[in-house]
Please model this.
Amino acid sequence: MTELLQYVLSGVTVGAVYALVALGFTIIYNASHVVNFAQGEFVMLGGMVTFFAWQAGLPLPLAAALAIVAAAAVGVALNKFAVERARGAPVVSLIIITIGASIFLRGGAQLVFDKQLHRFPSFSGDEPITVGGATILPQGLWVIAGAAMVFASLYVFFTRTLTGKAILATANNRVAARLVGINTDYMMTLSFALSAAIGALAGVLMTPITLTSYDLGVAYALKGFAAAMLGGMGVPAGALVGGLLLGLIEAMTAGYVSSVYKDAVAFIVILAVLFAMPQGLFGGKSTDRV
Amino acid sequence: MRLSSKHLTLLVLLAIILLAPLGFPSNFYYRIGSLIFVNGLAVTGLVILIGFAGQISLGHAGFAGIGAYACALGPQYLGLHPAFAMLLGTALSAALAWLIGRPILRLQGYYLAVATLGFGILVSMVLANEASITGGPDGHEVPELGLRKLIETIGIHLSNAQFWYAFSGLFLLAGTWLALNLYDSPSGRALRALHDSEIAARTVGVDVARYKLFAFVLSAVYASLSGSLLALMNKFITPDAAGFLHSVELVTMTVLGGAGSVPGAVAGAALLTMLPQVLTVLQDYEHMILGLIMMLVMIFLPAGLVPSMSRLLRGRA
Model:
């Protein structure tokens, strides 16, 4: 029982990060129907910029804020210089463009920073907290609380504020949104900034546990992407459930089957779900042309 | 008699393969040439899948990995001659593509992308983790093909680099010949029809599922052969051959030159294979430049280099 609880705790911690990355995918997908393969690079930027700013003498909270702003700026640039210009391009082109952006950012990070693994201190110490025989790191609680806060405030943002509703309107029907006076280009820019900031926050929260390096983006992009697919692409609640589910599947596999093949099992489960329910767990009926 | 563009393409390719060595100052250039041909072969397969049939795969390096490791493991465990191991790997790739193709190809767009990506990652994961059989991340050695020795007995002396240049060039020629013929054949027309509109293709009687599967299996065979050739040429193989980055590279080569065009694919393979060699001068910037090229081409030349340029030339004429 204790064992199971332990796996659940670590699964939820990792799953919360996957959920944040998946949420980033979801926001951009909704705004532009682009799956942004550079999403993992925002996570990397969050961790790397925070570390180097902190090492340069900035207090940790300020360094983290700087990292989130920097990632948001990169997200805006990605939209302005690449995605917006390729509007209407086929899916294959968009996949290549965002993968290109991801390789570009990784190469840039390797150049500007370095190739080492880095870690900055946990926010509230490294003394494990015991929960019913199992343990969780205080930083794990930070991750879970951070993810919960992001999801809650985004819910409020999208349902209670005019800007949030304008983004939803843009996602739903671009032309109609423009007809009622919404600046759709600005909404897209905002979506990219938001999604990058969320990714960077995930990186900031996770770095004290998993360390950061210039090349960790691919892994997070894949997991976040898989989580978003599992939940149903474009559905925020799906991102949350998909992320947590993926984290749990991984933790259980690592615990009961094989830690080497935890990634493999996660993928196999996702493929199985996709074959049974091609739109994911929460996705509605497809509106795409068949 | 006017040459069809198919024959013209093949002739130009043959001329390039034959004439390029005249300007080669060293064996190093033969090696780059062979790398281009080997990549070009895999990319030609992807032209059939992406360019003709309109289906994406981000996992084709997985098939290349199967082809490569067949040449490494077949001789060691089954005592096969490397050439037979290569055939076995090809058969294995084709069978696997046939097996997973049917369910996977029901998915579309991003979903298909992630499914194929998952397949590629699974293959590279098995190759990296089953270290007791495959040698793990350290890689595995591959035996000599022995064909060079054989043709030496009939009096043709080639250096190792020259042999691989000629041998992989032959494979590329055969591969492009097949792809170009397919393009004009009824099957090729069916593939291109389902690329434009699956519904329309189905209405005129094209068995969409069957043709998608056909393109997938055929492109897997190309990738597998390319992987085998690479393994035999390097006499060493690591799981990177099956890795995600290699899959992405192959797709990038395909769309860089022009996914719908066979000569474009070869040009794309040539450019992206040569680039890192040229860029060793700027080694630190290599990834940034690679990423930048991928973005710029897709934004400004969405049809790819070769179709865009030929349209430009035709416009002038």
